[in-house]
Amino acid sequence: MPDVNVTESRLTRTSAGTVGTGSRTSITSTSTRRARRIVRAVVRAAEAWRATSEAVLTASRWAGRTVRPAGAVVTIAATAGLIAGLVFGWVEWMVAGSASLLLLIMSVPFLFGSRAYAVDLTLARERVVAGHGVTGEIIVRNESARVALPGRLDIPVGSGLVEFGVPFLRPGHSVTETLEIPPLPRGVVTVGPVTTVRSDPIGLLRREHAFDDENELFVHPRTVPLPSTSAGLVRDLEGNASRRLVDADMSFHAIREYAPGDSQRQVHWKSTAKTGRLMVRQYEESLRSRMAVVLGAASQEYLDADEYELAVSAAASLGLRAVRDARDIDIVTGSEIPRVVKGRLRAIRRIPTVTPRQMLDGFSALERSDNTMSVSDVCRLASESNERLSIAFIVVGSRVPLARVRQAALAFPVDTAVAAVVCDERAHPRMQSIAGLTVLTIGTLDDLSGLLVRGATS
């Protein structure tokens, strides 16, 4: 009997233990499902918050672009008036809020159709001389299937803005307007992109759509015709012999003894027969008509912006004359240098001289700078990159002392003729020689031609 009781007790404890394990398993499954529901709820809340934030951000951006200051005032008046009227029962506030809301609702239809236009902008010329204007043509077409309400076009011209009114346009119809761009200073001017503007008559709301097309207008510096014999001013006669001795050229110099590597074509047989040793001809290298124009670009070298423009025009006139005379020419100026490396970095900018148009386009993009090299350093780099120059012009402003101009000229080789053009609008035109350096002082651009003619004929 005692054995039977012990067995039953063990079975009872085992059954109880099994039931306890099932309860724990059920509790664990319930907890896991609850945790998963919490995680899903948190994820959904995060996604909803992200979507709401993006919607609010998009709406705020749209409101910032669309709602004008007057529209913001009317919106505040509508909100405050309706809330005060509904909460406190103030009829006057309710009427003011309702009227403000009605104004906003009536302004919305004027924003429709901003993308219905197709706009073509063409300029009569892409290049113009400083001080001259240019005309263009704007064609606006309604390419939608609905009528387009009146609107406005905004056309950026450099830092300015030109506005055009667009009338009521039926589907498929167009209107043509003439664009008059006033005289512009030298530079590269961006015309466009054209922007269509939709706005209500009161000015509460405004919607803009910008097109992608832009036009570049090159405003060239003013130039004057120069005499083709201007190189005679500094004795740059093409074909004259220089002091360099070479093994093959046109100007015979002397006969010397043969050295390994000499060409057999240059052997002088009569001298060889007389001396019994191989003798060869030696020549003086002929001058090549290679010209350099160095333009100072540092702001501290010029009195003001007008003086710098005079220097740019003088350099462009010299370069244009050389290109039209089919001369090899290098036009260099100082390049912009980052302030953090100023003094440790040297850089020059070269103006393309393949064609007159390319050269003048390059001059259009020039600007003086506070962070650039002095004209002396520019001359040094120009001389290092072009060893065989026959003539060099240095164009500077009135704030460069003649001693510094002389120092800049010493950067070129001895057999390179150097002339300096000093631009000073307060000075009278004159030509002087300082320690072998010819200095031309001009007050206007026309003075340059007169001084070069006088020097070439003297």
Protein model, in words:
- This is DUF58 domain-containing protein.
- It comes from Microbacterium testaceum.
- Residues 1-16 have a biased composition (Polar residues).
- InterPro entries: DUF58.
- Keywords: Membrane, Transmembrane, Transmembrane helix.
- By secondary structure, the chain is an alpha/beta fold.
- The protein has helices at residues 2-66, 69-88, 91-107, 269-275, 305-324, 356-364, 375-385, 402-409, 445-457; strands spanning 117-123, 127-129, 134-142, 151-157, 160-166, 174-181, 187-191, 195-199, 206-210, 215-220, 241-246, 251-257, 279-286, 290-295, 328-334, 348-351, 391-397, 417-423, 430-434, 437-442.
- The N and C termini lie far apart (151 Å).
- The chain has nine helices and 20 strands.
- The longest helix is centred in the first third of the chain and has 65 residues, at 2-66.
- The protein has five domains: 1-61; 67-109; 117-220, Immunoglobulins (Immunoglobulin-like, Sandwich); 241-286, no CATH class; 290-457, Rossmann fold (3-Layer(aba) Sandwich).
- Helix 2 runs antiparallel to helix 3, helix 5 (305-324) runs antiparallel to helix 6 (356-364) and helix 7 packs parallel to helix 8.
- It has a seven-stranded mixed β-sheet, sandwiched between helices. A four-stranded antiparallel β-sheet has the order 5-4-8-9, with no helix packed on it.
- Helices cover 37% and strands 27% of the residues.
